[in-house]
Amino acid sequence: MSLVLPGLTSLVTLLSVLENQPEDSRLNFTELAIKYGHPNVEAHDVVTEDGYILTLFHIPGKIKGPVLLLHGIVDSADSFIVRGTKSLAITMANKGYDVWAGNTRGNKYSRRHIYLDPDTDPEFWNFGFEENGYYDLPAMVDFILNSTNQTSMRSIAHSQGTTAHFVLLSMRPEYNEKIRGLIALAPIAFLNNVIPPVSTLLELGPEIDVFLASLGINEILGYYSAARELVELICSQGIIGYDLCFILGVSPFVGFDPTRIEPLFWEVIMGHYPAGTSRKSLVHYDQVFLRKQFAGYDYGRTENFRIYHLPVPPDYNLTQITANVSLIVGKNDNLSRIKDVDILRSLLPREPQYVLLKPRLWNHYDFVWANDMDVWLFPYIFSFLKEWA
Fold first, then answer.
1. Is 336 tagged catalytic?
2. Is the domain defined by 11-387 classed in CATH 3.40.50.1820?
3. The whole model's pTM is what?
């Protein structure tokens, strides 16, 4: 069952609102790539070991060596292209990079399985960030390397995309040879130092989970759900929607920075985000916060013994990560906190490169949506890509 609120929006009302939205809010990744000068964009189906069908976008480039972009939670590959000529995907493509943009299971581009139906089979939604790392990411990496006849590649990940990489490189260490460099934007492994309202919400997580489970809700803010349509309807209403949804609704959780995401662009974002995820994905992060450990999913003592042969899930073994890692952090990020990134740094066996971005208000979503990424962020990204060429 999806998180839906039937009857709260009408198709006629929604369509009338969408007709007045910026064009880029209505275009998908492929259409945006074409609009911004890359008609050779491709979309590929990638099937994971456990049967999920993921969409992997490709903007071919002449520079040798593919680069994967991987999005955060309730997000999609769109976040890397919605800024048009100022987006990371288009900027890289314009420079000749071979760009691949992935979509993890459950979002609007990867809501498919070889036999499970996301609308009728609850088992489809039985995944969290561990499955993103253990199954989705290696499927993408292997597909890209096989398609390009390369033996290794570079990755750029944001938020949950970084978590997936830390899981993969810890649990399947052979991929440290295949991913020769990871640029981690707003990296998340630990949530020990988050502050209100994030910590308040996470403390309420178990009660929220019980409530949603009692309603049979497994999909959260699915892109095609009435709940998400309601969010878009409200949040795309000009300055009112911007103030209500971004300033009051989103900023307290990600960090307040109104200058880098302007009202008109917020309307573009609302056409693409949120893109859907599973309830279990949120629960796993909640467990990371409550247990103060970057560890596997806690199924309860009995089930843990069956799965892990331990009463509690084991920590991810970060000492297995030998790939080059660059951690890029924002001073005003309420989700990827500086102190939590410091914990991650201390556990990696190979000293990672570390960048604390200069802008005082740089927040969690500025890494993918800010109007001045080209000034503050991109120089570091291209420097690391060149270093690992």
1. no
2. yes
3. 0.93
